[in-house]
Amino acid sequence: MSTDVTVETLGGERMKLNMGPHHPATHGVLRLMVETDGEIVAKAVPDHGFLHRSIEKIGECVEWPMFVPYTDRIDYVCAMNANLAYCVAVEKLLNTDPATAVQVPLRAECIRIIVAELNRISSHLVAVGAMSMDLGAYTPFLHGIAQRETVNDIFEKLCGQRLTYNFVTIGGVAFDLHKGAEAEITAFLDAFEKEMIRFNKLITANTIFRDRCAGVAAISAADAVAYGLVGPNLRGSGVDWDIRRDEPYGIYDRLAVRVPVGQGFAGRNGRVGDCYDRFVVRLLEINESVRLVREALKMLPAPVEKKTDATGGYQADVAKQLRKPPKGEVRVRTEAPRGEMGYVIVSDGSKTPYRVRCRTGSFTACSIFQKLMRGIFMADIVTVIGSFDIVVPEIDR
Amino acid sequence: MVDPGIARPGNDPDEQVLVTTVDEFLAWGKENSLFYLLFATACCGIELMQTGGPRYDVDRLGMIPRATPRQADLMIVAGTITHKMASRVRTLWEQMTEPRWVVSMGSCANSGGPFSKWSYSVLNGVDKYIPVDVYIPGCPPRPEALIDGVMALRERVRKYRTLGMRDRDPHVVQGGDCAFGSHPGRDGACGPSSAAPGALAMSRGDESPRTPQSGKPAQVNGGPA
Amino acid sequence: MSTALAFAAIAEQVKSAHPSVEARESDNRQPWLLVPAADLPAVARLLRDAPALRFDSLADLTGWDLAKFPATPPSTDIAVAYYLHSLAHRHHLTLKVMAPRDAAQVPSVSGVWAVANYFEREVYDLLGVAFTGHPNLKRIMCPDDWIGHPLRKDYVYPQAYNGIAHLRDGQHFEDAPPRVGDPPPAPAAAAPAKPPVKSA
Ligand code: SF4
What we know:
The complex is a heterotrimer of chains A (397), B (225) and C (200). Chain A has 16 helices and eight strands. Chain A has 397 residues and is of the alpha+beta class. In chain A, a hairpin with a 7-residue loop joins strand 7 and strand 8 (355-359). Chain B has a single domain (21-195, 207-219), classed as Rossmann fold (3-Layer(aba) Sandwich), CATH 3.40.50.12280. In chain B, helix 2 (22-31) packs antiparallel against helix 6 (143-158) and helix 3 (43-51) packs across helix 6. Chain B is elongated, with a radius of gyration of 20 Å. Chain C has helices at 7-17, 40-49, 116-127, and strands spanning 22-25, 31-34, 57-65, 77-85, 92-100, 105-107, 130-132, 160-161, 164-165. The longest helix of chain C is centred in the middle third of the chain and has 12 residues, at 116-127. The N and C termini of chain C lie far apart (47 Å). Classes of the chains: A alpha+beta (397), B alpha/beta (225), C alpha/beta (200). The interface between B and C is medium-sized, with 26 and 24 residues. Iron/sulfur cluster (SF4) binds at residues 42-44, 79-80, 106-108, 113-114, 139-140 of chain B.
């Protein structure tokens, strides 16, 4: 396999190749400065910042609730999870002082789980679809997009947006579930499970696809931890760690999340932590998310008239607390589809944050690129990038 | 020659020959094969992707994504353009073959959108670097809005004249709702003039005398390639 | 996990090896360790390698400018915060290093946790903290020729980059952050309402 050829054994001339910032396989505007030795990559240095939109600085300029729409733009493929991470962080900040504590209604917590897991499904669909597209299989991508459209329809009915939802708010969610939402979601899940069988037949079990990913860019568990990989990328290397289960936020502690880890799924040529493992872990997580949505639907309390009701309401009253939140700092970690989305929030007690820091999975995933892309084939670069499921605004923010 | 022996509807030579002008014909062809550059930077790119997906399926409009600017007629600027990215956008646009069109998709590309006020690194509108034909508002615009924008662009493409206006600027839409009277890339009027950096000399109408294109268009970036 | 240690126990272990380390609390009682910059590499190694601690992952590294933070006495430091996490024992720790604003220098820990390489470049770029011993301390977000460090509280937005003005022609925002070359604010002539934007 590719890793048997080391750069040192070849002494040819190096060619410099610029990949990106406009390149269809870099999923946005990532730039890789690649030095090749024949077909082998001698060096690949990522260059970031083409989408640095200064979101963290904006966090210091706008008021607490006004930052929620910007979290959408940090990770638009799973905007619900991005909203949730920030809102959970602000709630934790408010809860550090009993005077400003907020109690998120149970119904809102359930709705949050439902939308977050649905969004995880649609995000992973883009991830696996785009990865197979990068490897030349265009059809699975279309299947993934078709399913994503259905999720978008549900979200659109829920909050009026298809991509940047601004739905999860501090202290709850912006709207209650619309009428018939439960039935719609259940119907989607039923159809979706059947569709996934087709999808897996189409691409996951495809020999060409599997062999192209097998054994490529395997990451050991120790490396994965040291380079700060998170989420499916970390679990692909066999590390059993999921924040939803191990440090639950919201009501994830009542849901018993099952965590798939990479085991060298590709078989003979595969290794734990290779591209195929990361791909399969995402597919397994989709199944788990389907189950979690069903669980959360079961737990959903009946709606009541009063929206701040502790059980059947959907939005706690936080306007007063947000005018004068406690002074201090908190750090919260949540599990987004691309791994840990952690917020460090520093408050000086005023109605605007003092510092908002968002730690995202794609940013740290890029830190391993330079090490990983040494000695692989040129054509495998897109495999590696695809398998990490990077979203560029998450890197650059 | 059509075999006179086979008499079927539509086989009559009178029905087989259409008379049109070369320009009409070329414009018709251009209009129906707007290959677009797969150029997505941010959130709007996902909507662009979904527009190309099975539900909205822009392939039926003859729009096929191309990965390289050299094969593209249309650049859909989908997403935020930062200062760091801007010179690359210009490079891509310069690599596209004439005639080329630009659709600015989403508030970010139009004007900086949600980042226009508080961001230090976002360019407030891609039209500061390249000329834009159609602006689509929205954050992100729905796929329907994108398709609507493309239909508006097709109106413009239909009026494009290749031969009839050889000595004049073909992008001037006679009597059309054209935002840019001149095609700025051709005479170097686009991009910041050295006198007033950032100010775009985009005149409405065609009052200025055309000078032949002198070498390269105005150098804008000056930054690293 | 039964092997997880509470903050007090971790702090005890660190302090016994490095007496200069202090245990502190933020205003809302989140505990952290204040590490003098000079001791950071040794403390980091200890935290990673001591069998009872085993902080194998650096979950986050960030910083913030304390210049406008309401504190008595006002601080002139940049806080660099390290959020450690142990996957082996499942416990957490927050370290902080205070770097003076005008000569912010902190030893790099990229030799201890590989991911620190990226995090430190980001903090360098946005806050201007120089990490000594970093293998590749370059800007990561902003272009190389960008002026200033945006997340500092006294950062002034640029008027233009690469000859392209930031704002559109004639565009003007009320109470927007200051830009280079802005006319100085009128000296309280009409006593303008205090803008909601904090950065002055
Ligand atoms: S217009 Fe909105 S959705 Fe589009 S790129 Fe900008 S922020 Fe994202």
